[in-house]
């Protein structure tokens, strides 16, 4: 669940995104004197902490040296590539981790660079899911951290540039939500809206992984539209759950028909569960708690085969895929 370990993903809905706000959990683990889990001594905890830091800087420094300002680093060839939107994605995605690690200098330099150089009025068709969790989430968390004296990472000269960028970006994502179900298209062009040939099929994670960022943006701007579209999308998915209270993997955003009916906690669905719980924790909205409780109960009943989780047909509950997949690994973090 932690930022430095965030998995790279290739398609929307393939991994469990971690909103920067959850970084607080990692902060607790990294701070001296914080509670230590049973079975880990304080010195072991320090070693683990340092290992996490080393891993992060290995990746971050490699990116800055070889790939920046392109989106991502190809780790074997040490080439950069613009794999998503062409807006220094890895840097934006890493800002909150830099702050979390106490790296005020690189955090401030990163925020300043992004504020001056990143633009979204570009002819690029981007994944709504990826752009939300990485870019919008990265900008909003960095904005909150840089604006708040209490974080110890406040940037004196910071003038809200990242919030302005967030609003601009989110407005460019909004055309994707113009569907009969309220569940967004998987991709949208930042300049021209949804492409004519855009697929009407999206993943459950694609429609269920927007509430935190869009909700925070609404709270920061007093513009309720972002929070509303994200909630409508969750409702659109949940209203189409099966009688077993399971959701499938892929859905048609026009007809609301499930085109892939395998229910599971991993690939294509994962962060649907994560975000309904976190949306309740962050905003106190009990509708999300209710959805989470029903969805979680069904997952534990039909998907949990101790010690694994399997995939079953959302309607019949029959096993379709009895294998563990790596994207399920976030689940224990959700259960804490
Ligand atoms: C936008 O980008 C697409 C894909 O690269 C290209 O085919 C199209 O001509 C561009 N449109 C404009 C108006 O530049
Ligand atoms: C949002 O509304 C609150 C309460 O009315 C106000 O204090 C705040 O300044 C407003 N924020 C923005 C960005 O307009």
UniProtKB/TrEMBL annotation:
Its EC number is 3.2.1.-. PANTHER family: ER DEGRADATION-ENHANCING ALPHA-MANNOSIDASE-LIKE PROTEIN 2. This is alpha-1,2-Mannosidase. GO terms for molecular function: calcium ion binding; mannosyl-oligosaccharide 1,2-alpha-mannosidase activity. It comes from Triticum turgidum subsp. durum (Durum wheat). It is found in: Endoplasmic reticulum. GO terms for cellular component: endoplasmic reticulum quality control compartment; membrane. Belongs to the glycosyl hydrolase 47 family. The keyword Nucleotide-binding does not apply. Residues 1-37 form the signal peptide. The keyword rRNA processing does not apply. One of its GO terms (biological process) is endoplasmic reticulum mannose trimming. It comes from the Eukaryota.
């Amino acid at each position: 669940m932690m930022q430095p370990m965030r998995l790279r993903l290739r398609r929307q809905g393939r991994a469990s995104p971690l909103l920067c706000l959850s970084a607080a959990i990692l902060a607790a683990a990294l701070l001296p004197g914080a509670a230590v889990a049973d079975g880990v001594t304080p010195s072991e905890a320090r070693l683990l902490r340092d290992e996490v830091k080393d891993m992060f800087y290995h990746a971050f420094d490699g990116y800055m040296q070889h790939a920046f300002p392109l989106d991502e680093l190809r780790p074997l060839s040490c080439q950069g590539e613009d794999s998503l939107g062409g807006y220094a994605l890895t840097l934006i995605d890493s800002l909150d981790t830099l702050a979390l690690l106490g790296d005020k200098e690189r955090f401030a330099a990163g925020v300043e660079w992004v504020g001056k150089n990143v633009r979204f009025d570009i002819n690029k068709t981007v994944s709504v899911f990826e752009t939300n969790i990485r870019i919008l989430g990265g900008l909003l968390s960095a904005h909150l951290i840089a604006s708040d004296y209490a974080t110890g990472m406040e940037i004196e000269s910071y003038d809200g540039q990242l919030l302005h960028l967030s609003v601009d970006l989110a407005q460019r994502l909004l055309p994707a939500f113009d569907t009969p179900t309220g569940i967004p298209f998987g991709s949208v062009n930042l300049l021209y809206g949804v492409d004519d040939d855009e697929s009407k099929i999206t993943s459950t994670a694609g429609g269920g992984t927007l509430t935190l960022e869009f909700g925070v943006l609404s709270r920061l701007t007093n513009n309720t539209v972002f929070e509303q579209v994200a909630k409508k999308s969750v409702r659109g998915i949940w209203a189409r759950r099966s009688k077993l209270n399971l959701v499938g993997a892929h859905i048609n955003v026009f007809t609301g028909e499930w085109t892939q009916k395998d229910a599971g906690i991993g690939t294509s669905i994962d962060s649907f569960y994560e975000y309904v719980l976190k949306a309740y924790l962050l905003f106190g909205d009990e509708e999300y708690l209710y959805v989470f409780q029903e969805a979680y109960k069904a997952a534990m009943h039909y998907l949990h085969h101790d010690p694994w989780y399997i995939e079953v047909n959302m309607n019949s509950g029959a096993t379709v895929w009895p294998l563990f997949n790596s994207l399920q690994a976030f689940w224990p973090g959700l259960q804490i």
